[in-house]
């Protein structure tokens, strides 16, 4: 923290030593490149955070860097509450601009309205500008083709959204999948209880004869069927299971107070 303060003071003292951005902008004057740009700003009075991301291309006729596609603006003002946590920068509430330019004289224009002058430090490792009480830093990098922004553009879900069958991702150390089906739920003593049937699938390329699943707060098991409670409180296979072959499944059931339980495997023993 102290170091950051010292660095900040150093930067502020050295503002007068900053120079024009000719050299910095010169590096991006190539019409065959796509220039990815990000801007992050903090409001000097209310501490709001304002961010922009977009791909630029150099127009060799007008000598300007122009937005290729759209510029996405996400702000900490636009926040939503998900799972009990404020999520700032809600992409649903993003602002999309089609006009963004950086002129060769270092002036930047957002949405035809806002103008600001870029300031570059001598070795170009810090480029900043001030606008509407925000202090912004800007960075750019040239690519042969436009990289994805990962900043509010449309995407396709790689997994189906959770329905009544929440599916937990396999733990990283073992490729063993657990698929839960919620059978019923009830309330008792102001607590909600959930009863699940779970299909375990062996996606490893080996068979295993034994498993130890950790009884932790993410699973929250209170009682189980087709699983044996071990002396240390974790759970394992009942005696009649000899081995689970690759791709084979095994079904068990349990009651938990967790709505979306997940499993941690402590160990397996190869058959
Ligand atoms: C401007 O860029 C285009 C490609 O986008 C190129 O064909 C043209 O020769 C360039 N003109 C100059 C003056 O560099
Ligand atoms: C830079 O150029 C733009 C476009 O020609 C102009 O609007 C702006 O005022 C210029 N900025 C400075 C600092 O001269
Ligand atoms: C600009 O974006 C379009 C698609 O929106 C893409 O086809 C094109 O290659 C991009 N320009 C550059 C210079 O990468
Ligand atoms: C009900 O909840 C209270 C406090 O949460 C606890 O003291 C009590 O033992 C619970 N009763 C039963 C039957 O679980």
Automatic annotation (TrEMBL):
This is Carbohydrate binding domain-containing protein. Pfam families: CBM49 (PF09478). GO terms for molecular function: carbohydrate binding; extracellular matrix structural constituent. Keywords: Signal. InterPro entries: CBM_49 (IPR019028), Dd_Spore_Germination_Stalk (IPR052879). Residues 176-257 form the Carbohydrate binding domain. GO terms for cellular component: extracellular matrix. GO terms for biological process: extracellular matrix organization. Residues 1-18 form the signal peptide. It comes from the Eukaryota.
């Amino acid at each position: 923290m102290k170091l950051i303060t010292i660095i900040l003071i150093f930067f502020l003292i050295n503002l007068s030593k900053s120079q024009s951005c000719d050299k910095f902008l010169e590096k991006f004057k190539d019409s065959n490149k796509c220039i990815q740009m990000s801007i992050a700003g903090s409001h000097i009075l209310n501490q709001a955070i304002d961010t922009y991301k977009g791909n630029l291309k150099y127009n060799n006729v007008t000598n300007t860097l122009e937005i290729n596609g759209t510029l996405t603006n996400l702000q900490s003002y636009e926040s939503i509450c998900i799972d009990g946590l404020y999520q700032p920068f809600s992409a649903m509430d993003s602002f999309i601009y089609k006009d963004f330019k950086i002129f060769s004289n270092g002036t930047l224009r957002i949405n035809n309205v806002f103008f600001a002058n870029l300031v570059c430090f001598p070795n170009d490792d810090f480029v900043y500008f001030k606008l509407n009480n925000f202090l912004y830093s800007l960075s750019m990098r040239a690519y042969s083709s436009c990289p994805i922004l990962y900043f509010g553009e449309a995407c396709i879900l790689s997994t189906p959204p959770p329905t009544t069958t929440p599916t937990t991702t396999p733990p990283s150390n073992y490729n063993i999948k657990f698929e839960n089906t919620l059978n019923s739920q009830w309330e008792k003593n102001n607590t909600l209880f959930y009863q699940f049937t779970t299909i375990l699938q062996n996606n490893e390329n080996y068979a295993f004869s034994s498993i130890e699943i950790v009884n932790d707060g993410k699973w929250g098991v209170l009682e189980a069927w087709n699983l044996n409670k071990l002396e240390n409180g974790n759970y394992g296979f009942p005696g009649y299971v000899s081995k689970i072959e690759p791709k084979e499944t095994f079904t068990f059931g349990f009651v938990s107070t967790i709505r979306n339980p997940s499993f941690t495997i402590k160990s397996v023993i190869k058959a």
